[in-house]
Amino acid sequence: MNESSIMIAMSGGVDSAVAAYLAAKGRRAAGVTMDLAFEDGPHRENALRDIADAAATCQRLGLPHRVADLAAAFKEHVVMPFMKEYLQGRTPNPCVDCNKHVKFGALVDFVRQSGYDRLATGHYAQIERDQSGRYLLRRAKDHTKDQTYMLYSLSQDVLSLTEFPLGGMTKQEVRALALELGLVAAHKSDSQDICFIPNGEYGAFIEAHTNTPIVAGDFLSLDGRVLGRHRGVVHYTVGQRKGLGIALGHPAFVVRKSVTDNTVTLGKNEDLFTTRLTVRGINLIPYDTLRSPTRLLAKARYRQEAASARVEQTDADELTVEFEAPQRAVCAGQSLVLYDGEYVVGGGKII
User: Fold this and answer.
1) What is the pLDDT of residues 45-84, one digit of tens each?
2) Is the CB of residue 253 less than 8 Å from the CB of residue 268?
3) Which one is catalytic: 58, 95, 98, 331?
4) How far apart are CA 292 and CA 312, in angstroms?
5) Tens of pLDDT along 106-150?
6) What is the model's pLDDT at position 42?
7) CA of 174: how far to CAs of 60, 148, 163, 301, 320, in Å?
8) How far apart are CA 263 and CA 219, in angstroms?
């Protein structure tokens, strides 16, 4: 019997349900669902439904179920920075911040305070330990579901007490096991939207939650000509083509945004490519410092194939990355994650 005790983070979905079944075997275990609803409305309705689904799964598995009220931490570390970043013209990834500060931050504190040793989640990733005793983050067996991009910021302390029971399974195997166990989440579809903006209307959300009006401005060409009017900078993302509301007689893409003069610059697809970028807010996993320029694989977006790049640590909290082949639609505020084969080296935020 495993003598450690464990809490399993349960979202109400199929992945965390199966993770709970696997992690609970042979030890004291409990399910825990984060209540992140910081306001009434669709977000709270979704949260209450997820809590109920997770509680039903725990009942089926014979596990106690706890609810961790982490709404204040979620608002402080995820929602507020998300709005601030958008208003400054960047494109944040709130799931990365949620993992760092809430799921593997505030929730870890809750687990420890509740008298449990370890935390398991339904992420598709793997944790290993090298000969020196350092913890490593490895890609999941199912590369189509791999979530290591979202987990690059985890510290050695967090990795040492975390388990990912699904890391060696495929999604098909997970759903099959859920059906075999008769879990209520077996047929539940995966969530796709940002949880606190379920309709995807970022601009409306930001305007409703800040004192900053979303003001229309000019679409510009790369040579500075006014092409038309946009609805507000927060409504656009670098690389965007659809929903521009402007007809130029040829495909147009957002290539640059400026909150200083409230403009959105449009260009052609070929204008979106770059080979060099800088990241800050870095976290390295196999070692503390990248001592010399190194050839690694890098991803500037979650749904992107990792590409070969030369990576150099140019300051204590800064990496310079130069890709072999130009990369499309690199956005300030997104995460750049580095890989050495199957293993995550680390990453940071693109500036």
Assistant:
1) 999 999 999 999 999 999 999 999 999 999 999 999 999 9
2) yes
3) 98
4) 6
5) 999 999 999 999 999 999 999 999 999 999 999 999 999 999 999
6) 87
7) 17, 18, 16, 26, 39
8) 6
The residue type of 62 is G
Q: How far is CA 276 from the centre of its chain?
A: 23
Mark whether 98 is an active-site residue: yes
Task: Spell out a b/e string for 161-179, using b for 16 or more CB atoms within 10 Å of the CB, else e.
Answer: bbbbbbbebbbeebbebbe
Q: Is 331 a catalytic residue?
A: no
What is the chain's length?
Answer: 351
Whether the pLDDT of residue 276 is over 70: the answer is yes
Percent of the chain whose pLDDT exceeds 90: 91
Say what the pTM is.
Answer: 0.94
Which listed residue (58, 95, 195, 331) is catalytic? 195
Q: Which of 282, 279, 277, 281 is nearest to 329 (CA)?
A: 277
Residue type, 281: G
Residues 6 or more apart whose Cβ sits within 8 Å of residue 291: 313
Residue whose token pair is 């976290």: 283
d(CA 265, CA 244): 11
DSSP one-letter code for 189: P
Q: C-alpha dihedral over 172, 176, 177, 178, to 10 degrees?
A: 100
C-alpha Rg value of the chain to the nearest Å = 22
d(CA 332, CA 350): 5
Residue that the structure tokens 């579809």 belong to: 189
